[in-house]
Amino acid sequence: MSVVFLWITVAAVLVGIPIVFGLVIGPMLGFLIDGRAAFLNSSAQRIYAGIDQFPLLAIPLFVLAGDLMNRGSITTRLVAFANMLVGRLRGGLAHVNILSSIFFAGLSGSAVADVSALGSMLIPAMEKDGYTREYSAAVTAASCIIGPIIPPSIIMIVYAYVMGVSVGALFAAGFVPGVLMGLALSTVVALQAKRLNLPKREIRQSFKEKMRITQESVLPLMTPVIILGGILSGAVTPTEAAVLAVLYAAGLSLVRRELRFSELPGIFLKSGTSAATILLLVGAAAMFGWVLTVSQVPQRLGTFILSITDNPYVFLMIVNLLLFGAGMLLDAGPAILILGPIFGPTIAKLGIDPVHFAAVMCINLSVGLVTPPFGLALFATSTIGKIPVNRLVRTMLPFFLAQVIVIMLVTYVPAISLTLPRLLSI
Prior knowledge:
The chain is an all-alpha fold. The protein has one domain (53-423). It has helices at 4-14, 19-33, 40-51, 58-71, 74-86, 92-108, 111-129, 133-144, 154-163, 167-195, 207-233, 238-255, 264-294, 297-308, 312-329, 332-350, 354-367, 376-385, 389-412, 415-423. The radius of gyration is 22 Å and the shape is globular. The protein starts with a helix and ends with a helix. The model has no long low-confidence stretch (mean pLDDT 82).
C-alpha cells in the first residue's frame, strides 16, 4: 500500500482540520485512491478496538481526580506550602510557581490543567507583587510542562499502551527528569533575580503559621504518594490507582466541605467531555497506527535512518530534532500515538531501552506544548495571562534553553531516567 494517506493526513492538519479527523480522513481517502475500499470495513472496528482497552480506563479517572482537586482548595494549599518553602528567596513567587507545578504534577498529569489551576491564581499574584505580566506568564508556561513528566502522566499512560511498556516503569522513569526540569527552571530564575531585580518577600512567617500551612498540606500531598506507592509497589494497577485517586480527592474535598454534592454532576460532565476527547483521539490514532503497519511505514523509516547511521547517539539526536518539530505542530498525545509505532522497530534494532526512549519522547513532546505555532499550553497561558503569544515566547527564551539542556541530559545520560525503575525492579 502506498503512503499517499500520510501526505493527506499531513495536509489535513496543516489546513486546520482537527487532528482526530485528519487521522481518520487520511487513511480512508488513501484506501479509495489505492483501490482498497475493502479496508474501509475494518476502520471503524479498529477505532473501537483502540479504545476498548482496560488500561485506558485510567485516563478518564485521572482527569476526574484532577478536576475534583481543582474544584476544592487543594491547589491553594499546595501553593501556600510552596510559598512557605521558597517564598523568601529573591524571585520567590517565581520559585513558588515552579515548585507548585512540581506538586500539582503529582495530582493532574496534564500541562493544561496545571496552567488552568495555577496560572489563574499565580499570574495575578505575581503581577501584584511587582513582576511584569510577561514574566509571570512565562514562568507559568515554562513550568507547566512538568505536569506530563512527573507521574501520574496521561501521555505516559498513552505511550505505555501504544508501545507495550509498563506504566509503572514509565512513571518511575519520569520522576527524576521532572524534578530536574524544575531545578533547571529555578536556576534560570535565580540567575535572573538580581539582573531583573525580582521581588523578594520580606515578611517572615511565624513558626505557628508554618505548622498550620504544613498540616493543611499534608493530606493533599499524600495523593501522589498513594498513587505512585500503590503502582510501584505492585499493590494496585494504574487503573485501580486512578480509582483510589478519585475517591481520595472526592472524600478530601467533601469532608472539608470545599465541594458540595450538587456540584458533582457538573464536574463529571466536564471530566467526561475531556476524557472523551482524549479517547476518541486514541481510537483514531489506533486505526492510523494499523494503517502505518499495513503500509510498512515504520520499517521503511527504520531502513532509511539506519542507512544514514547505526549509531544510537546520532539516532537519538535525529529523533530529538524530529520530535521538536513535531511538538511545534502536534499535541503530545497525538504525536506519541503517531510517532511511537514508527520509531519502535528502530529503537529495538539499535538496542535503545524502550523506557529510556519513552522518557526522551515524553519530555521532548511536553516542551512542544509551549512552543509556537500550535503549543496548546502556550495558548492557554496566553489566554489566562491576557498577553500576546509573541511577547510571551520572547520572555520564555531563557527557559526554553534550560528545557533543551534537560532534554539533552536525559537523552545522553540514560541513568537519569532508568535508575529509579531499575532500583524498583519494574
